[in-house]
Amino acid sequence: MRFSFTATLVAAATLASSVTADLYNRLNVNDTAFLFVDHQTGLFSLVQDYNSDTYLQNVKGLADTAKYYGVPTILTTSREDGPNGPMLPYVKEQFPDAPYIPRPGQINAWDNKDFVKAIEKTGKKQLVISGIVTDVCVTFVALSAKKAGYEVFVVTDASGTFSDPVRKSALLRMQQGGVQLMNWFAVACELGRDWRNDLTGMADLFSKNMPSYAHIMDSFNGAQAALKASK
């Protein structure tokens, strides 16, 4: 069988382009907005699928990620004047100028026109969603946003609910609806793309919110100090 030189070049170029192209539609820091849905002090007690300290740290990690990248962030609560309570102080304090929508009664935040308008105003098409509880407040918004034409990414470890079985069924429902599931660390890494963009900033973000990563940086800093001392 005979092959022409031109055909070989075309095949090589095609292979190269397929290797360098994005293999999937990644989070883009210029087209992403974060939605914190019902992270409220009263609802926090319902979270039983994570250790409370671990869960709170995950939420803080996600909030710090949104703040670090400077992406539009929207906060909403459900009947905060009742037993659900106000937004977790840490989350609200991180975004003093963010749109804050205290819903008077709508269980699905997407049913609140002010909430949807705030999202539309950002002009972003990728929504990173987290909240309490996973099977209601998060799932309803995620599926609604997906149907409205948005790319939806739910942060599983910054969303909590009553039990592991409830969480698994909620995640399955969202996944079947086309929602992408991530953890907060993966969100931060995908937005960052490349360590060379800001090695110190990303390392500080991870060290602050992940004790195990802080150990990595302690080891790295110790090695760097020893190397400098040996010169």
Describe this structure in words.
The chain has about 230 residues and is an alpha/beta fold. It is about 50% helix and about 15% strand. The chain contains 9 helices and 6 strands; from the N terminus they run H-E-H-E-H-E-H-E-H-E-H-E-H-H-H. It has helices at about 5-20, 50-70, 90-95, 115-120, 135-145, 165-175, 185-190, 200-210, 210-230; strands at about 30-35, 75-80, 100-105, 125-130, 150-155, 180. Strands 3-2-1-4-5-6 form a 6-stranded parallel beta sheet, with helices on both faces. Helix 2 (about 50-70) runs parallel beside helix 7, helix 2 runs antiparallel to helix 8 (about 200-210) and helix 8 crosses helix 9. The N and C termini lie far apart (about 60 Å). Mean pLDDT is about 90; it is low at about 5-20.
Question: Can you give keywords for this protein?
Answer:
single chain, alpha/beta, 6 strands, 51% helix, 13% strand
Structural class: alpha/beta
Radius of gyration: 21 Å
Mean pLDDT: 90
Beta fraction: 5-15%
* Major sheet characteristics: 6 strands, parallel
Distance, first to last CA: 62 Å
Tally of separate helices? 9
Number of strands: 6
Can you tell me the overall shape?
globular
Roughly how much helix do the residues carry, as a percent range?
A: 40-55%
